[in-house]
Amino acid sequence: MSTTLSASAPSTFEIKSANLPLVALLLKSADLTRLSAEFAQRFGDVPDFFDHDPLVVDLFPLQVFEPGAALDVGALCALLRQYRLNPLAVRGGNDEQMALALAAGLTPAPEATVQRPAPAAPITAAAPLPEPVAQPQPAPGALVIDKPLRSGQQVYARGRDLVVMAMVNPGAEVIADGHIHVYAPLRGKAIAGARGNVDARIFALSMAPELISIAGIYRTSEVALPEAIQGKPAQVRLVPGPDGDKLVIDPLSV
């Protein structure tokens, strides 16, 4: 026999499930001095790059690159907060690291995953058509810059592509969460996929950058471009491989 319990709904609150978009930090080294220097190199010129984004610290890469490394989790969290990141959760650490993370106020999140787009499967004539699905809302339009960018100037297209119609001079910096298109000489720094979009690309009619970067993988002018690329139309993309992601630069026919 079933039993019905009397109950009343609370009038002051409700409990609902919620989804929270997180930024993930895949930590490969416990050397916080080196980490601080690389953060400063990458984000030091962009004080508002992050906007107090909630973050999960993924310690699994640390088990691969520096197994058994001692990690000062409190100092790590303090460093991240300097760059307006809000560390909330942790995953992938050993017992000692997870205990330190909990003591620092982080929540264990063993089921958290880092999303990486899967390559599209080829479509053959025999393949059935996919079922119609609801289309996502279109992303914001690209940010378009019409004027040349001088040394010291910086443009960041948050959450969208960046299109530059004039020269990016040495010392200037263009950043986008999506693709970067430069319909002129690119002689400064170009950082595409700034928030981890591995599918982002960089296009330029004259490729001669001081630095190019996609999803954190970068190359500087200290490594000269091949003659077939230097000063010519080209694109930069990220290609996964057994030794990790690598930047590939291809000439363009225009």
- Record the strand order, biggest sheet: 5-7-9-11-14-15
CATH-derived architecture of the largest domain: 3 Solenoid
Q: Helical residue percent?
A: 10-25%
What proportion strand?
25-35%
Structural class category: alpha/beta
Low-confidence stretches are: 1-6, 117-126
Summarize the biggest pleated sheet: 6 strands, mixed
User: What is the overall number of helices?
Assistant: 4
Number of domains: 2
CATH topology heading of the largest domain: Pectate Lyase C-like
Give the termini distance in whole angstroms: 78 Å
Tell me the Rg in angstroms. 22 Å
In one word, what is the shape?
A: globular
What is the averaged pLDDT score? Answer: 83
Give the helices and strands as they follow along the chain: EHEHHEHEEEEEEEEEEEE
Give the CATH class of the largest domain.
Mainly Beta
Tally the beta strands: 15
What does this protein structure show overall?
This protein is an alpha/beta fold. The protein has two domains: 23-108, ACT domain (Alpha-Beta Plaits); 143-251, 3 Solenoid (Pectate Lyase C-like). It is built from four helices and 15 strands. A six-stranded mixed β-sheet has the order 5-7-9-11-14-15, with no helix packed on it. Strands 6-8-10-12-13 form a five-stranded mixed β-sheet, with no helix packed on it. A hairpin with a 2-residue loop joins strand 12 (211-214) and strand 13. The radius of gyration is 22 Å and the shape is globular. Mean pLDDT is 83; it is low at 1-6 and 117-126.
